Amino acid sequence: MSSDVVNETAILEEVRAAVAGVEDPEMQPITVGELGMLVEVSVDGPTAVVDIMPTFTGCPATAYIGADVEQAAVAVEGIDRAVVRWRRDLSWGPERITEAGRIKLAETGIAPPGSGQTQQNSLLGIGGVRCPYCGSRNTRADSPFGSAPCRSTHSCRDCKTPFDAIKPI
After folding, report:
1. What is the C-alpha to C-alpha distance for residues 43 and 167, in angstroms, rounded to an integer?
2. pLDDT of 62
3. Cα separation of 65 and 52, whole Å?
4. 121: exposed, middle or buried (C-beta count within 10 Å: 0-12, 13-18, 19+)?
5. What is the pLDDT, as a whole number, of residue 164?
6. Is residue 37 within 8 Å of residue 54, measured between CB atoms?
7. In DSSP terms, which residues pair with 112 in a beta bridge?
8. For 146-169, how does the pLDDT look when each residue is reduced to its tens digit (9 = 90+)?
9. If we measure between CA atoms, which residue out of 84, 49, 65 comes closest to residue 148?
10. Which residues, at least 6 apart from 104, have a Cβ–Cβ distance to it below 8 Å?
């Protein structure tokens, strides 16, 4: 294997790590890598091409995320230009969130997908979304609108703490 191929492979891995570490501005400190938004990264000489998918149609943060991904890629030595392509032909799903991402979501007070969002019957007040603070399912849905378009607002009847949950898709 030539030193050029080894160097290009090393640069590709550096670019992949750099862009995967970009934080979602609406869910800091969760990164686009942890959210499973990163589709593909390639390097052709001094140009990096990053394919990424939004987690939510109409997400207002895509412009910021795209700019941050581009900035992270060109910060890698040997990369002078980055092309960020939004893959709207692919569907993001909550199964793409890594275990580390789910843990970080819960630690920041956001119930990750799979916390009971689809089983909740808010009219009967049973089977609520699992509270990210105390783990109780004795919760209620307060509003379908949370602090970001992809979230809803809930509160826990046991620990009396309000929290956001990622909306089911």
Report:
1. 35
2. 92
3. 10
4. exposed
5. 92
6. yes
7. none
8. 888 888 899 999 999 999 998 876
9. 65
10. 29, 30, 34
**Stated pTM of the model:** 0.81
SS (H, E, C) the chain: CCHHHHHHHHHHHHHHHHHHCCECCCCCCCECCCCCCEEEEEEECCEEEEEECCCCCCCCCHHHHHHHHHHHHHCCCCCCEEEEEECCCCCCCHHHCCHHHHHHHHHCCEECCCCCCCCCECCCCECCCCCCCCCCCCEEEEECCCCCCCEEEEEECCCCCEEEEECCC
Cα distance between residue 134 and residue 49, in whole Å: 42
Burial (CB count within 10 angstroms: exposed 0-12, middle 13-18, buried 19+), residue 69: buried
Residues of the chain whose pLDDT is less than 50?
A: none
Q: How much is the pLDDT for 83?
A: 98
Q: What is the pLDDT of residue 148?
A: 82
Closest CA to 84 of 38, 23, 26, 131: 38
State the burial class of residue 52 (Cβ atoms within 10 Å of its Cβ: 0-12, 13-18, 19+). buried
Residue among 165, 152, 148 nearest 61 (CA): 148
